């Protein structure tokens, strides 16, 4: 049931048949040469992309038009053989297997021990996976803040309370661990008249400090909406109201941002009075609640 | 000359009869069967451009200072990974075209995989004997997904680093093993320093190796089983009608490869993608906005945004919020994908082999369920841009989020129901085009008088009556 | 007779509706004028403008009314006054939900007059109009300052963003959207003023947060962001992965779908 070989498709006779193919290949050649020139002269991404696209596209068009016009079409037929084997074939597979397995049949202890050995080795082989990382331990429950640690901005400079204007927001770190990612803290001064959250000895003159790590999925809560003192996380739009203790007021975050107790040291610099009293950031299975 | 070469090879490999059989092999020509090829050739382009990139990218988080030609970053401290990416983009000839073609390639690769998967689903090509290939295909899909994510996270820029932070938090949220899982994968508490080199090895060697292996299996199974085909003149369960591998199919396929390469490289030069130099290097206390992942993770991102602030706490343990959207949803999604052929076979009690495809209208229930599911993911996908919509429409992002919370419940079943009615309308009116289906057939299928009202059966449609 | 009334009413309603939504072409004029009359001899031009256009909402003494806030407190002063006038956020006919930028109502001369009047009269504690010298700014320093302080709200590429506000403490579910603006029409002076005074929802960045040198560098970088090096080609909005995904589907997959439609057969066709 096969059609004639080399059957040309109707409607494309004469030299005009070849023209589009030759033009496409011509364009491809010119474009390919041009891109080598562009490259030699220093390169330019837009020209490189456009010219390479033309070169490759020219070949593509040539191949496809050639196939459409000059190659036999899709009327060939092939028989599908029955995929499943015959019952005889399957039986012979089963018997070949069981004949080979005969010596093992009467030595079940050996077979079982083989199984145990492979199982034990497999378990042992999993252990190098443990080398991939450290034990979580208690690292998720603590940050690097300690009582008396001065807060510093990214450039390492400590902060005086007077330097903070109303509605000014700074990102601060512990002075002795300025690169500590889990210690990142928001320091901001609330406007007068606005309720100051947290215990009285955790804040200084309306200046409050909260963990910057969103309790939803860990992005830094970087947006501050000064009119109603709300912190906003750009990742999934969790909103935290600072006067309400950074309580989530919208979005998928379920827990407030932990508050860092702060005070002022003898020289007038803002210091932490201790670590956060709960783990910062997103939740995890064994997270202790307050 | 060909005779001499093939003789030489046959002498050593006894390949003559296989080669003749292969050259004459028939493949059906429907355009939608080439979607898988578009995916495959996108993957080839990704491989080729990716190999170029590996010669320049430095997968290290060691600190360095940028001294290249991009002025706004000169003197700025950053990781080697970020520096090498910016240098590749500005100071290596053809570097940026290769990098952008690689990224556009990934975007188009996964897009074509989705459309290919939908084609296979809606035509029932996953039915016996092709369940194994469906499983291989879903695995390829997951691997592509994963490699796309690891790929754009390599440059250690502010946007992708934020995505890694979210991935870490999702790992953390897994019950019982979460903190161990996160610490093992990342090498410690975020931002652990091992993650970039590990992503690199995974992205460049492990996953591509798996993809190449599974792709070979995927193609080998198609070769062995022969491709399915739509009902049409001359088509039977017992034959395959189309072009021969040589010369027609080969020319068409190679032409398609050149077309894919052309489109991707042209986009790579003409359309800017992932301009990491504008995002800046990653710092764990900074975040960019808008913050969305690449498109194929849009559905998980949308879910993370619209799922209410549920967290489960009991007996001193908790399941935090990101678990539901970040781990449970993908788990259920891929689980269902894997199980679908077996679920459908069980429900329809159809365990016969099928080589002739369904048209969507012939299976109104499957089509409707598929459209319901697709709508669900599309709504999630669009929900991921809620902040962009809030900015453009000057509406509160809370309002937009609440709208999507309603849509995710209401829209999928509505679309499913309408799809079902439309498919039934197609069936009873025997129309060929969407525009030719009379409204009456959709509204009152049983009363429609052009042909007897159809009962939904699980057998194949008659090939001759549905041909155009 | 009754049937023909309806179309007439509809027509009237349409005309009324069109009139209501017509673009406001005339310049701002408040309903009542409280100040000294123009014919009363030489009047300080700034005072004249303030009394004519601002006093209705902000009060003759600048201490505010139910329509407009107190201009004598917080970060008010030369910089903030100059900012709202220069960016066309003020004056407005009614208290806005959120101040919106637009074409300025006054020219530079008039703005300077009003600023002079306001600063001398109200003596608000906020900063004066800053002196910006872009020649001292460093582009790379500006990039780091922008990324640290600005990118999260205004976006890494300066296209703006969105957040929300709970305007009513007693109604927790009520929210209002805040549009974070892009920098399209803001010159360096306006940006410097906004940084130092934190207008509207914006936080205040004093010299501790952003030093003067950092501010100048920031302005240089923001000037760059208006026309950045789009080395990779058409920037497609500089919005990020959302648009890139859409373009990848529409252009990339779209073109390739056309190609395979061309190569392959359609339903039921045989070649």
Descriptive overview:
The complex is a heterotrimer of chains A (290), B (468) and C (271). By secondary structure, chain A is an alpha+beta fold. Chain A has 5 helices and 11 strands; from the N terminus they run H-H-E-H-H-H-E-E-E-E-E-E-E-E-E-E. In chain A, helix 1 runs antiparallel to helix 2. Chain A is flat and about 90 Å long. The termini of chain A are far apart. Residues 1-8 of chain A have low confidence and may be disordered. With 468 residues, chain B is mainly α. Chain B contains 17 helices and 6 strands. In chain B, a hairpin with a 2-residue loop joins strand 5 (312-314) and strand 6. In chain C, helix 3 (78-86) runs antiparallel to helix 4 (108-122), helix 3 (78-86) packs across helix 7 and helix 7 packs across helix 8. Among the domains of chain C are: 40-122, Cytochrome Bc1 Complex, Chain D, domain 2 (Orthogonal Bundle); 134-226, Orthogonal Bundle (Cytochrome Bc1 Complex, Chain D, domain 2). By secondary structure, chain C is mainly α. Chain C is 44% helix and 4% strand. The radius of gyration of chain C is 26 Å and the shape is extended. At the A-B interface, helix 2 and strand 1 of A face helix 5, helix 7, helix 8, strand 4 and helix 10 of B. Strand 1 (76-79) of chain A pairs antiparallel with strand 4 (239-244) of chain B.
């Amino acid at each position: 049931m096969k059609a004639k070989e080399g059957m040309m498709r109707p409607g494309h006779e004469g030299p005009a048949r070849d023209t589009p193919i030759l033009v496409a290949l011509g364009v491809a050649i010119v474009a390919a040469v041009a891109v080598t020139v562009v490259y030699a002269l220093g390169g330019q991404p837009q020209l490189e992309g456009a010219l390479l696209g033309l070169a490759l596209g020219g070949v593509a068009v040539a191949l496809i038009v050639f196939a459409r016009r000059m190659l036999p079409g899709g009327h060939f037929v092939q028989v599908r053989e029955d995929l499943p084997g015959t019952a005889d074939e399957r039986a012979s597979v089963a018997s070949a297997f069981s004949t080979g397995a005969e010596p093992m049949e009467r030595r079940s202890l050996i077979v079982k021990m083989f199984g145990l050995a492979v199982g034990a080795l497999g378990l042992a082989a999993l252990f190098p996976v443990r080398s991939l990382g450290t034990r979580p331990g208690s690292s998720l429950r603590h940050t690097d803040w300690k009582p008396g640690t001065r807060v510093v901005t990214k450039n390492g400079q400590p902060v005086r309370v007077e330097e903070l204007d109303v509605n000014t927001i700074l990102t601060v770190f512990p002075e002795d661990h300025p690169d500590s990612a889990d210690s990142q803290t928001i320091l901001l001064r609330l406007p007068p008249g606005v309720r100051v959250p947290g215990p009285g000895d955790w804040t200084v003159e309306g200046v409050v400090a909260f963990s910057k790590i969103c309790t939803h999925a860990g992005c830094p809560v970087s947006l501050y909406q000064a009119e109603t003192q709300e912190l906003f996380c750009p990742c999934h739009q969790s909103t935290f109201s600072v006067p309400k203790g950074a309580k989530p007021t919208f979005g998928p975050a379920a827990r407030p941002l932990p508050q860092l107790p702060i005070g002022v040291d003898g020289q007038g610099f803002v210091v932490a009075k201790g670590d956060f009293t709960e783990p910062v950031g997103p939740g995890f299975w064994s997270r202790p609640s307050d | 000359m060909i005779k001499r070469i093939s003789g030489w090879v046959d002498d050593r490999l006894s390949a003559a009869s296989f080669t003749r059989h292969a050259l004459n092999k028939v493949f059906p020509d429907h355009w939608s069967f080439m979607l898988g090829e578009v995916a495959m050739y996108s993957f080839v382009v990704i491989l080729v451009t990716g190999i170029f990139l590996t010669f320049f990218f430095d997968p290290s988080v060691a600190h360095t200072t940028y001294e290249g030609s991009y002025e706004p970053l000169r003197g700025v401290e950053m990781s080697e990974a970020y520096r090498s990416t910016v240098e590749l983009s500005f100071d290596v000839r053809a570097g940026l075209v290769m990098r952008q073609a690689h990224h556009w390639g990934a975007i188009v690769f996964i897009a074509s995989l989705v459309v290919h998967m939908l084609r296979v689903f809606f035509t029932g090509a996953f039915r016996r004997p092709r369940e194994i290939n469906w499983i291989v295909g879903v695995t390829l899909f997951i691997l592509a997904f994963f490699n796309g994510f690891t790929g754009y996270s390599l440059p250690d820029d502010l946007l992708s680093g934020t995505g890694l932070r979210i991935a870490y938090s999702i790992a953390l949220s897994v019950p019982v093993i979460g903190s161990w899982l996160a610490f093992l994968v990342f090498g410690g508490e975020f931002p652990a320093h091992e993650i970039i080199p590990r992503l690199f090895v995974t992205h460049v060697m492990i996953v591509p190796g798996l993809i190449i292996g599974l792709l070979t299996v995927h193609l080998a199974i198609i070769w062995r089983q022969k491709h399915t085909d739509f009902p049409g003149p001359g088509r039977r369960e017992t034959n395959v009608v189309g072009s021969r591998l040589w010369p027609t199919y080969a020319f068409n396929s190679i032409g398609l490869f050149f077309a894919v390469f052309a489109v991707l490289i042209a986009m790579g030069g003409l359309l800017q993608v992932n301009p990491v130099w504008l995002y800046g290097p990653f710092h764990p206390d900074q975040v960019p906005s808008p913050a969305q992942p690449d498109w194929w993770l849009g559905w998980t991102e949308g879910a993370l945004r619209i799922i209410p602030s549920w967290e489960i706490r009991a007996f001193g343990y908790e399941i935090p919020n990101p678990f539901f959207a970040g781990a449970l949803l993908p788990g259920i999604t891929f689980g269902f994908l894997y199980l679908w052929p077996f679920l459908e076979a069980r429900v329809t009690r159809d365990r016969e082999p099928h080589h002739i495809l369904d048209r969507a209208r012939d299976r109104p229930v499957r089509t409707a369920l598929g459209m319901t599911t697709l709508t669900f993911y599309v709504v999630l996908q669009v929900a991921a841009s809620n902040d962009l919509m809030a900015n453009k429409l000057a509406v509160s992002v809370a309002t937009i989020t609440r709208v999507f919370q309603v849509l995710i419940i209401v829209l999928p079943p509505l679309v499913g129901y309408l799809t079902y009615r439309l498919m039934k309308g197609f069936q009873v009116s025997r129309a060929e085009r969407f525009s030719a289906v009379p409204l009456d057939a959709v509204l009152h299928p049983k009363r429609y008088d052009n042909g007897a009202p159809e009962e939904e059966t699980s057998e194949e449609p008659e090939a001759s009556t549905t041909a155009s | 007779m009754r049937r023909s009334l309806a179309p007439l009413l509809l027509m009237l309603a349409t005309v009324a509706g069109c009139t209501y939504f017509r673009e406001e072409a005339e310049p701002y004029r408040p309903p009542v004028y409280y100040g000294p009359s123009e014919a009363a001899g030489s009047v300080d031009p700034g005072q004249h403008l303030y009394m004519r256009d601002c006093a209705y909402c902000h009060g003759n003494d600048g201490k505010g009314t139910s329509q407009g806030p107190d201009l004598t407190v917080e970060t008010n002063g030369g910089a903030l006054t100059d900012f709202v006038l220069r960016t066309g956020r003020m004056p407005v006919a009614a208290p806005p939900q959120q101040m919106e930028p637009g074409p300025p109502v006054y020219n530079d001369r008039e703005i300077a007059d009003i600023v002079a009047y306001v600063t001398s009269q109200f003596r608000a504690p906020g900063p004066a109009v800053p002196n910006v010298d872009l020649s001292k700014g460093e582009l790379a320093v500006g990039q780091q300052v922008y990324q640290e302080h600005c990118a999260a709200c205004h976006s890494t590429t300066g296209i703006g963003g969105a957040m929300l506000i709970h305007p009513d403490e007693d109604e927790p579910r009520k929210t209002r959207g805040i549009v974070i603006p892009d920098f399209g029409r803001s010159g360096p002076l306006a940006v410097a003023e906004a940084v130092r005074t934190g207008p509207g929802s914006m936080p205040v960045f004093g010299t501790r947060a952003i030093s003067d040198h950092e501010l100048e560098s920031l302005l240089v970088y923001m000037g760059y962001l208006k026309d950045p090096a789009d080395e990779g080609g058409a920037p497609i909005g500089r919005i990020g992965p959302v648009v890139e995904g859409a373009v990848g589907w529409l252009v990339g997959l779209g073109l390739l779908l056309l190609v395979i439609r061309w190569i392959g057969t359609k339903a039921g066709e045989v070649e």
